Amino acid sequence: MPRKTIILSLLVILFARISCYSSDSHLELRHLDAMPGSYNNLITALHKHSGGMLWFGTSSGLCRYDGYNVKQVNGGITDSTTILNDHILNIHEDCRGKLWLHSSDRYGVYDPVMDRLDIPDSESIVQKFGLEGFISNLTTDANGDIWLALSGKGLYRIRCVDDKVEKVKGIPSTFAEITDMVIKDGELTAVDKRGALLFMDIEGMKVVSTVAPDPIMNGNHLYEMYVDGDDRVWIYQMELLYVYDRRNGKWLNDRIPNHGKIGIMKKIFQDSSGRLWIARDHHGLERILTTDEGLHFVPADPPGMATRNNTITCFMEDSAGTIWMGTYKRGLLSHNESVRKFTLEEFPDVNCVTPASGNDMWVGTDSSGLWIWDTKTGARRRLSDPSFGESEPAITSLTPDGNSNLYIGSFSKGLRLYDGKNFRKITTSSALDDSYVWASEFDSDGRLWCGTLGGGLFMYDPSTGEVVSYKNGTTELLSNYVMSVVLSRDKRVYIGTSYGISVYDPKSGKLKRFRDLFPGIDTYRWKVSQIYEDSRGLLWVGTSNGLKVIDRVHGKVQEIKLNDDGKQRYVLGITQDNGGSMWVSEGAMLINIKVGYDEKTGNLNVVTHAYDNRDGLMECDFNQRSFGKLPDGEIVVGGLYGLNRFSPSEMKFNMIHPRVVFTDLYMGSRLVRPGEEVDGRVVMKNGLADGAEIEFSHNPKEFSIYFSTDDYALPEKTMYEYRLEGYNDEWTFCAPGVNHVTYTNLSPGKYRLLVRAVNGDGYESEEPGELFIRVYPPFWTTTCAIVIYILLGMVAIWGIVKIVSEMERRKFERDMHEEAMRKQEEINQLKFKFFTNVSHDLRTPLSLIVSPLEEMIKESTDERQTRRLTLMRSNAMRLLTLVNQLLDFRKNEVAGLQLNPTEGDVVAFSQNVCNSFVNLSERKNINLTFYSDRESICLMFDEDKLEKIFMNMLGNAFKFTPAGGRVDVSLEQVGEENPVLRIKIADTGVGIKDKDKEHIFERFYQVDDDGESHPHMGSGIGLSMVYEYVKLHDGTVRVTDNVDHGSVFIIDIPIRHIDRKSKGDVCREPKPVRQENVSVRPENVAEAADANSVEGSSGEGNAVDSRPLALVVDDNPDMTEMLKFELEDDFEVITASDGNEALKVIENVTPAIILTDLMMPGMDGIELCRRLKGNKATVAIPIIILTAKHDLGVKLEGLTLGADDYITKPFNFNVLKLRMKRLVELTAKGARRSLVDPEPEAIKITPLDEQFIEKAVKYVSDNIDSSELSVEELSEVLGMSRVRLYKKIKQITGKTPIEFIRVIRLKRAAQLLRESQLNVSEIAYRTGFNSPKMFSKYFKEEFGILPSVYQDKEGSETNYTV
């Protein structure tokens, strides 16, 4: 019997010890199977990387967990057959941070930083290190060196730093193939397939000892093992477990339950606290306990965590003390002592808690009445009030009196008493009996103060049953809604209401407002939820608008900021722990306030930390004033699901300073892998390791950098703050739950991103994680580009300087050249002017030579003398031709030549010119032929110009053709639609070289005849003039070689005609060409013929005794003397040296005819003609202009001004006399009509002329404001040709049509100047002048006065000022 008693006692003790261990073995586990990301829930291997992230293997590959998301990696390989997608069994890390993976049939090496598979399989590993064989096992040591067991080849160490391979020596040959290795505390322990053990010092690579297998081991197996802190080696395979105690050197299989046959083994693991854990198939989590009796497996599943139906497959503890467990079907589990700070005691909805006796606590619920709870054993019992049955009212306050009585305030049921056995309703015959008692508290005199919701405040004396009521309005109670009643250390009772705080002062026995006792502190309108007095004497007041602290000693009120967002929320409850910290309930959170208070100054400093359901709190709001404190200092707080219980002094905190880890980079929604190119640039060359650099091309639109920490205790509560140096130097907090930063449109430059973390318990990173960001500028803003720009700018500047210098040089050279040209031109002009003047001056002496020679030839009877005179006359005429040519050339240089075309038969004209060279051809024995394919070719041509063309061309042909040669002239019409006259002049002379043909028509160009001067070399003017004359006819001239020798000049002139509708047939026979003087115009010859006929018919008139008076005006005395001598037989001659002298002479006498030179000093012949024809007294005197200028334009100007005839020097005196006599006779016979001065009004003339002029004046007057009014328009209106109009108006008015129109305009303008108020400019435009300047010029010429002066003088009588 005693023996049985002893055995029974031992079993009881053993059971008690196991039960004690069992209660301590339960772990609070977090289930991470709901982690974002897709992965297989069969976890087979776990590893915490040195970079901070958690890597785990599954049956379908390798995964990464960063605290927020799970990502299954593929190394950027789409091939699903790699080891990264295989069944991962083990993960090891070397010194470079690379992961050595072991799958069911191979090994491989993965680089997690670069996300790539470096070595894909076992064979590649063996080959890389120059080994042979099959890898049977692999592990790494603390230095990151790789230990490689090759089947049948031994054990090798691969040094990570240099990849040096070293073989372990001294392994017994009996030691079979290694199936597992464990390195711990510098020693490697290996087990072979027989179960034998080997111990080796890894530093010296020496085998320390070996242990033979336990005799009960039989056969070869793939053993796994674990070495614990007590030097016990745990070896297991399938359903067998073996333990070797190295300290004692023996196998402990007899101490294992059922001798090691414990079911399918998965893993054994010992945590940093020394607790040993075992995982068996379908046994969940178990703890191995060692007793004197042996080894025991105690279930350690947390309450409500049914892992028994699942299998734990692997263990791992990280540096933060978090234990990780992989399961068969439920993913990852983790445990950290700091995570679950609060436990839950399940009760119905708890409103209030207060201590009872011993370890008991009173618990008042909302719907289940009163409970008594043993805080040590957890036992709890409901105390029902029989008077209420099952529907007990809500308990709102519990107040013990210290005598085992408990006063219970209830909702709508007044006050009750529980004496430990029975419930009793307190009946006072007052309003208290049916009030909603919300708060109650005993004062120092033992009176119970009861605050109600709407009923005000009651003071109840239990000893007498007396009740005193305090109401708002009748007392200083601020509101009838009393929320809190507190007895202070100063024996005052503080009553918190919905409208502020009132105070009962026992000294005065009165209720007062707070401000009355404490001036300067006004609590009016505070909606108080609870008042709590702490050990420092401070009043902590919870309100609907946050927490306030009243320092009554220093008269201060301070608001406490409970949340980072700054919002003040409803405070539900307040209490203080034994350490002096305050605890505040706000919603579903508990806020711990660490207080620093200076009693001397009253300065209050607080540090807050909030806890929520992630720390183990209920997922509901706490009830108001539901705090309670247990005798051992534990604190409980009530809510919907019961009581949260915690011990502030024993609360475990996560004191690990989190290290920031950068996890991912996204550009927009695109995940960027290391080494991947984006926009032509590798963004991450070395991954996202701490201190790495990422590079962007210019203007990255948006990128996000994700980060985490190496602390996974409660990652969802980790807060981050960041700063991007170079962009914003201020630290910025991420929003709760946010673990990334995003930047958009970052400017080019270098940046440093700093991120630091604060874990859920307020511990901050010691060093921020840093990541360097470089945004490259676009090429056009890079340093290289700037250098290129500078170089280009320098080149551009150099080029500009060079160009400017070159331009300046060229400009200088051009200026110099222009200056030289200008000077040369000045010299040339001086030469031209000199030669022109000389040539002009030569014409008069030539006239004095030719005219007497002609008279002498006529009078000579000596044949020999006649030949001499003829030779003299011929050379004088040749000299005159050269002079005329030079004058034409000069005119072309200065003003350009003008074409004066008439229509005629060019064949006859050309033949006449050729006939003039007949004598020359006979004299030089040169055959001259003329040919035309048509008898007559009519076209418009300038006879003078075409004559000079033939003269020059034929002259050159005869000049360079030797005797016996020939000159051929041919004319032909070429083309039908656009006919052209083609003139060919061919000779058989010396010819022209090809190099000279291109320049033969240039001015002053002379053919270089091999350095020898040709006897007939010209001046280089003739052919250039031919070119200009042909060009005036819109023709072309060219030279070719003759068939045998010589040259052929070909001239093409377009055939054009005058409008025959108005002109009729104007093609006429040409006048014969005079060899004596080629400058005599054909019309002059015709007039001379007319004069001869007149002279023949009026020969008898010469007998008149009185000779007509002729005035000769010329500045050359010889010319005047010769004219006087030649004319004195027929005229009485008086002379004047210039126009001014001639006007003076005319004032005294009226000559019958005037002969005037054109070019004279002072007043020239043109001005003299203008004066005389503009004077009514002298307008009828006939005027003949004699001049050396043979230009047709000058002749037209003179005739336009009223000159009666125009004769060029030299001239024939017989012709001159005949013309003079004809003009005098016409004047004398009245054939010359009196001139009519045109007036805008009626002109008294002959009836026909009157009608003509009236019609002309009317049309001009009607269109006087039109500046486009022309002679052509007037001729069409009057129904006659322009030539006839010219002659008609000239005959009647003495004015040309242009002058006629102008005079009418000017006279109308004079009328307007006299009679209107218009200004000069308006009158000018109104009378058809294009500009006031021209108007003023013509007005002054007509009236001798400016129009403005005329208006002031003539219009003063009619003008008036407005």
Biggest sheet strand order reads 61-67-66-63-64
Helix content: 25-40%
What number is the mean pLDDT? Answer: 83
Distance between the terminal alpha carbons, to the nearest Å? Answer: 159 Å
Beta-sheet strand percentage? 25-35%
CATH architecture classification of the largest domain: 7 Propeller
CATH superfamily of the largest domain: YVTN repeat-like/Quinoprotein amine dehydrogenase
Class of the largest domain, according to the CATH hierarchy? Mainly Beta
Radius of gyration: 69 Å
Unreliable runs, pLDDT <50, ≥5 residues?
4-23, 1060-1066, 1068-1105, 1231-1236, 1241-1245, 1356-1362
Q: Please tell me what the overall shape is.
A: elongated
User: How many beta-strand elements?
Assistant: 79
Q: Characterize the main sheet.
A: 5 strands, mixed
CATH topology of the largest domain: Methylamine Dehydrogenase, Chain H
Question: Count of DSSP helices?
Answer: 24
Structural class: alpha+beta
Q: What number of structural domains do the residues give?
A: 7
Describe the model.
- The termini are far apart.
- This protein has seven domains: 310 residues, Methylamine Dehydrogenase, Chain H; 308 residues, YVTN repeat-like/Quinoprotein amine dehydrogenase (Methylamine Dehydrogenase, Chain H, 7 Propeller), CATH 2.130.10; 122 residues, Immunoglobulins (Immunoglobulin-like), CATH 2.60.40.10; 89 residues; 164 residues, 2-Layer Sandwich (Heat Shock Protein 90); 146 residues, Response regulator (Rossmann fold, 3-Layer(aba) Sandwich); 129 residues, Arc Repressor Mutant, subunit A.
- The protein is elongated and about 190 Å long.
- The strands form 20 sheets. A five-stranded mixed beta sheet has the order 61-67-66-63-64, with no helix packed on it.
- The longest helix is centred in the middle third of the chain and has 77 residues.
- It has 1362 residues and is of the alpha+beta class.
- The C terminus is likely disordered.
- Helices cover 26% and strands 31% of the residues.
